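USER:
Before I trust my own judgement here, I would like a peer's view. Write it directly below this note and I will take it from there.

ASSISTANT:
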Amino acid sequence: MSADRAVVGWDVGGAHVKAALLRRGRVADAAQWPCPLWQGLDRLDAALDAAVARWPDLQQHAHVVTMTGEMVDLFAHREDGVARLVQRLARRLPEARFFAGDTWLTATDAPAHWPRIASANWLASARHAALVCADQEGLLIDIGSTTTDVIAFGNGRVRSTSRGDAQRLQSGELVYQGVVRTPLCALAQRMVWRGVHSNVMNEFFATTADVYRLTHELDPEHDQHPSADNAPKDVAHTCARLARMIGLDGRDAGSDEWLAFARDWRARQCDELRSQVARVAAAHALGPSAVVVGAGCGAFLVPELVPAGWRVLDYGRDVADVAAPATAAWARVGAPAVAVASLYEREQR
């Protein structure tokens, strides 16, 4: 590959498309577009159109792809999802290569090896973190809009023996909770309101975005999907969505009380994530000097999830090689896209 040719890494998910543009090995730009793939492949086309608008010379670059979008119920099964996504992407991204863990497959070869391609984005991020932190052991914790990955590494390698999502759900390395799209009823069945325990409503009334919007921890630029009720995302409407979880209306309390309630939901999510982090750390016997690499739009939670004394690194600032500090935030959010581009560029030198 020519040293002057840029590399674009893609992470095609079920809810977002993330992309990172590398020039001479450095992240020159990174972006994310909403892509509710379950609504149709035209949503992917729209995200790719947005990428072309951002990078008009896109067709001139090398393209490497990882994905999780094959999981959405648009497809009959994951094999079908990989095959159809590969086919669609190959039309738009010249000579694209697809990440298969330890090799890069063409669009022609990829469908036959779909288990190695399906939902492998976490492996790209973990491999990249392991290589950059080659003399250390620790965890990659990538908290996204929908899921959290907890992956051990050491001696420059990923320690996990899991590969598919089913295995990772069993090991605790994949937790289906994020900071934007997760329904609040997935976090707890009972909550305390004004000192009284209450069942919560198992309805899609509110999401974790409502919690972190009230705590001012979720960057508005990362809050790209509609709210649960398609209503505005201002404080009043956000409080109203939280109130519905326990059968109340937003007007039944002031904003300070709803903020305290949001913090209670936050604590429940942190408790769950902390237990999964401890589980993975124990499985790999990580010691007191371990490091943790935080990634994703929910990386702000990472310092609260790990043992005291562990050093916390930021994927966008400390792992990704960004050309400008302003790029670090989106490099953190789009870690798998940065990772596939960085791994490919490194291996093609």
About this structure: The first helix runs from residue 42 to 54. The chain has a mean pLDDT of 96. The radius of gyration is 20 Å. The first strand starts at residue 7 and ends at 12.
